[in-house]
């Protein structure tokens, strides 16, 4: 699937507009689903979602694995568990490991482990597009 | 010339300008923000429960920062 980069407005002090690779995903939990506009982050080892998402979907994090994670806000112990998402219009469920963190700088980040493993992702920023295609196994 | 087909509905970038560092709920056509708040829970609380699945949530990152992982 081919996507256009999303432009972030307002521009910076030099008049440059940031562009980010954003895709719509649906996140599944025991208590329903949420649609989110997610940031594909090739620089992230693993996916990170805001902890509110786990609470709202009743995703139990009490016995999950804790991993040290370093990000823009410093270092934290993050609770990781496997989550099912879909990438509309595809309906194929994807199971990926996700860390849940209470950070003002994290919404939904799709990182390398799990998400990139299951897709062939090509960034063509000079053309303003990127492609995300599921790898057939 | 081949027409480019893209799979993301483009929102008007200016639509999100008032929501610096907030969570927003967008309509499925990305044309309107129907709720916003400092947290996702606060944003959802504004919506009718049956509308939760009829919107797309997004965290608008602060406009005055670039995003890159580092540890100061």
Q: What is the element layout, followed by pairings?
A:
The complex is a heterodimer of chains A (137) and B (72).
Chain A: E1 2-4, E2 6-8, E3 18-20, E4 22-29, E5 32-40, E6 47-50, H1 51-56, E7 65-71, E8 74-86, E9 94-101, E10 108-110, H2 112-116, E11 119-124, E12 129-134
Parallel strand pairs in A: 5-10, 6-9
Antiparallel strand pairs in A: 1-12, 2-3, 4-5, 4-8, 6-10, 7-8, 8-9, 11-12
Chain B: E1 23-27, E2 33-37, H1 40-46, E3 55-59
Antiparallel strand pairs in B: 1-2, 1-3
- Unreliable residue runs of chain B: none
Order of helix and strand elements from N to C terminus of chain B:
EEHE
Rg of chain A, Cα atoms, Å: 15 Å
Largest interface comes to:
A-B, 41 and 38 residues
Give, in spatial order, the strands making up the sheet with the most strands of chain A.
4-5-10-6-9-8
What's the main sheet of chain A like? 6 strands, mixed, barrel
> Helical proportion of chain B?
under 10%
Mean pLDDT of chain A: 90
Give the end-to-end Cα distance of chain B, rounded to a whole number of Å.
48 Å
User: SS-based structural class of chain A?
Assistant: mainly beta
Overall, the morphology of chain A is globular
Q: Mind describing the biggest β-sheet of chain B? A: 3 strands, antiparallel
Instruction: Say how many strands of chain A there are.
Output: 12
Radius of gyration of chain B: 15 Å
Instruction: State the distance separating the first and last CA atoms of chain A.
Output: 18 Å
Point out poorly predicted stretches of chain A: none
Oligomer: heterodimer
- Topology pattern of chain A, helix = H, strand = E: EEEEEEHEEEEHEE
């Amino acid at each position: 699937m081919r996507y256009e980069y999303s432009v972030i407005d307002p521009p910076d002090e030099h008049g440059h507009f940031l562009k980010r690779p954003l895709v719509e995903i649906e996140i599944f939990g025991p208590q329903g689903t949420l649609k989110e506009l997610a940031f594909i982050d090739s620089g992230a080892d693993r996916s990170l979602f805001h902890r509110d998402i786990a609470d709202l979907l009743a995703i139990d994090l009490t016995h999950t694995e804790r991993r040290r994670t370093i990000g823009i806000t410093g270092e934290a112990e993050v609770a990781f568990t496997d989550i099912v998402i879909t990438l509309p219009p595809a309906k194929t469920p994807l199971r990926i490991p996700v860390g849940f963190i209470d950070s003002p700088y994290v919404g939904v980040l799709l990182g390398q482990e799990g998400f990139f493993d299951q897709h062939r992702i090509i960034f063509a920023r000079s053309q303003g597009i990127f492609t995300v295609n599921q790898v057939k196994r | 010339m081949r027409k480019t087909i893209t799979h993301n509905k483009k929102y008007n970038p200016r639509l999100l300008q008032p929501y610096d560092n907030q969570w927003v709920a967008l309509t499925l056509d990305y044309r309107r923000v129907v709720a916003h708040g400092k947290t996702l829970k606060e944003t959802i609380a504004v919506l009718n429960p049956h509308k939760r699945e009829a919107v797309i949530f997004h965290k608008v990152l602060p406009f005055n920062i670039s995003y890159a992982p580092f540890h100061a």
